[in-house]
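Working notes for the structural subgroup meeting. M.R. asked for a predicted model of this chain before we commit to crystallization trials. I am recording the input and output together here so anyone reviewing the notebook later can reproduce the run.

Input as submitted:
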Amino acid sequence: MTSNYQMNSDASKQSVASLYREQGFLFPVDVLSEAEAKELLDDLEAAEQELAGDEEKLSILKAYPDRVLPSFDKLTRNPIILDHVTRILGPDLMVWSASIFDKSARSEKIVSWHQDLTYWGLDTDDEVTVWVALSPVTQASGCMYFVPGSHKEKAVPHKDTFAENNLLSRGQEITVDVAEGEGIPVELRPGQASFHHGHLFHSSGPNHTDKRRTAPAIRFIKASVKQAGGEKPLVSHVHGTDEFGHYDIADTPHGRLLQSDFERCKKDAEVRRKILYAGAEKPSGTRY
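Returned structure, recorded in token form:
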């Protein structure tokens, strides 16, 4: 099964917003050339080599690539990405977070069926996740699957599994059954992106290929959105204006892998840990 959506250069703002509102996602959208995607992957892999042996900094690199690598901060401000997100959310945008979802070659890591907004503690669902492929994303390599229209269900019950092979923070999964074949495979070439709603049912399987499957997931929110618990996590202001002051605004990185940026991210991770694991039996899982 494939999506009936294909982005084209003359798509109107109304058609993009209407299609997203109806099915809960858009893909594939060309946001980078394959060469540009390779440059980003090369920069990430170089950073991993430079930080080899420092598990704390490697964890922060995966959770905050845009805060410690200027190249990934630039990606969050990509004009094509911002053009599409502003069509959906309007002009005033924050990046709530941007993290790497990575499956090494022959990895059994999966992402269970879930909704993104379940544990983020936001007061509205004015959020869009942009997932940018830096390597080939196929069914064999563990692509995502989307259930069209499932975002209209709003929030459904989830259960925490804390499964070791699950890339999600709590191994969370929806308690609603998803029939086999109901999900659409989101296959992407390097440089292509998918956009999905925070309440959309989605998942991904293991990587059965001999190549790494890597992508940053960038979570955009309206500047008006706030944490329901009053927390002020670190975000970046990437478009329009901020008249609300709901967050701690990060500067664009002034350098690459700076100690000061790692320290600031480490402090923010404590704030986010409290948000993500609120009510959980365990205080932490695979992220943060």
